[in-house]
């Protein structure tokens, strides 16, 4: 999915800033990356714009974007695995439960969409 092509760049940048302690260079390119990716993980444009006004707040925005990608991915993976186990056991109602639970808390549109696709597939004959 082309709109998520920058997630690896976010991961790499977050690793350099958070784990290696490099300063965040708030260039036009970095601002655009953070602004566009913030929208992809359901951070309001106003919140992102405000955070991009300074280095410290931009670094916090970077951490939040990376966290939403990482935590959401793990949450989705666990829900899909759990749903698949129940589906293979023939219990479609139990298979729906982890997907519905994910939809109750997940904010990242890509992960919500993937969970909904799996949920819809459970309703197919």
Q: In terms of topology, how is this protein built?
A:
Elements lengths: L6 H13 L8 H13 L4 H7 L3 H34 L3 H14 L3 H14 L3
Report what the structure shows.
This protein is mainly alpha-helical and 125 residues long. It is 76% helix and 0% strand. It has six helices and no strands. The protein has helices at 7-19, 28-40, 45-51, 55-88, 92-105, 109-122. The protein is elongated. The protein starts with 6 loop residues before the first helix and ends with a helix. The mean pLDDT is 94.
Task: Tell me, briefly, the overall form.
Answer: elongated
Unreliable segments of 5+ consecutive residues: none
Helix-strand category: mainly alpha
Helix content: over 70%
Q: Number of DSSP helices? A: 6
Average the pLDDT over all residues and give the rounded result: 94
- Main beta-sheet strand count, sense and barrel state: none
Offer a concise description of the structure.
This protein is 76% helix and 0% strand. The protein is mainly α and 125 residues long. The model has no long low-confidence stretch (mean pLDDT 94).
Top keywords for this entry?
125 residues; mainly alpha; 6 helices
């Amino acid at each position: 999915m082309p709109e998520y092509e920058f997630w690896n760049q976010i991961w790499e940048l977050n690793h350099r800033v958070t784990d290696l302690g490099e300063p965040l260079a708030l260039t036009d390119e970095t601002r655009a990356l953070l602004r566009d990716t913030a929208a992809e993980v359901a951070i309001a444009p106003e919140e992102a714009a405000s955070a991009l006004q300074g280095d410290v707040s931009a670094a916090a925005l970077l951490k939040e974007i990376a966290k939403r990608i990482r935590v959401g991915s793990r949450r989705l993976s666990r829900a899909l695995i759990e749903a698949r186990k129940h589906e293979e056991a023939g219990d479609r109602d139990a298979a729906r439960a982890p997907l519905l639970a994910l939809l109750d808390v997940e904010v990242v549109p890509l992960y919500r969409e993937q969970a909904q696709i799996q949920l819809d597939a459970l309703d197919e004959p």
